[in-house]
Design brief:
34% of the residues lie in helices and 25% in strands. The protein is an alpha/beta fold. The strands form five sheets. A seven-stranded mixed sheet has the order 1-2-7-8-9-10-11. The N and C termini lie far apart (56 Å). The structure holds MU-OXO-diiron (FEO).
Amino acid sequence: MQDTRKIQDDLYYVGVSDRRLALFENIYPIPRGVSYNSYVLLDEKTVLFDTADSSVASQFYENVDYVLSGRRLDYIVVHHMEPDHSFLLGEMLLKYPEATVVTTKKSIEMIKQFQGLDLEDSAIVVSEGDTLSTGKHNLAFVMAPMVHWPEVMFTYDSYSKTLFSADAFGTFGALSGNLFSDEYDFDRDWLDDARRYYINIVGKYGVQVMNVLKKASSLAIEMILPLHGPLWRGDSIPYFIEKHKIWASYEPEKKGLIICYASIYGNTENAAQILASKASERGIRDIRMYDLSKTDVSYVLSDCFKYSTAVFMSSTYNLEIFTPMKNLLEDLKEHLYQNRDVALIENGSWALQSGKKMAELLCLMKDINLINDTISIKSSLKDNQIEAIEALADKIKESLS
Ligand code: FEO
């Protein structure tokens, strides 16, 4: 049965939530699921904005059929051709052969690459500033390359002051009946997943995100409709734009401490616990700790970007950084981690190497301020090293002041 919602006079939500998928892009755990948002406009001409992933095909077809109620489908706007939004495009064109695809040149090339679907002679190719009137609505196309793939564009509907924002302003998490962010306690229940989605998916492309935010700032926007997660309207919009400005500029969102440790037998972990206690004794309240062997790196990466100060602690393994820490640091480098205060603690039983190797990796990142001389543990922390831990806790306190 159809499950659709009217969100404006003539605009309908036809998206579907998926709670069965374990890994988004086959890499990011999504225990709360994900939504594939899609919209149908019933103006003089009808428009479908994006399709959906194959996993939700039958519900999606039913939703679109129901909203169109026998009307022809004139246009399918493809903002982003990544398969989670365009997998069903071919099938939709079979079901609605009269529909014309509206998208970017790059998108047409990539749809052909992925799906073997040749739209070169049939699609309307748009570029920055092109417009399409559907009756009372006037759609203007805004190029948004690398937010998150190179073919991405947004649509701005000047009649309803609505921005269709592709992956931007999206969030992991299935929708639980409510569609709009202001129908949830977003800050409490969604912000962590929104940050994890942003940092992991588009975090590398802060410059491009800033460019698009700049373009968007010249538009009067009353509604933002992303491809994932809650929709945005009215007074809630500036809150989320502000978060994106912080994330895209690589500024810490909060003064706070994150301690990440990669421990084999628990001795590096023990030192991490002691350091956290010393930090707490100094009145530091916002402390996050992660055992990198246990927590998926996407969560840790997200919190590294959230907080201003990080401690990385790793055993030596095969004369290298212990793998979970190596993976985190490589991931941080790829996502342009920068502008943070960082401290290092290494462990090793016969050939200490992890501290040096961690420092080498961090040196490849921009504006990383090492606040201590690496503390070296030989197998386990000793009484005579407590002073060094206390001194590091003082440095952390200073970094957070
Ligand atoms: Fe939601 Fe970049 O795909």
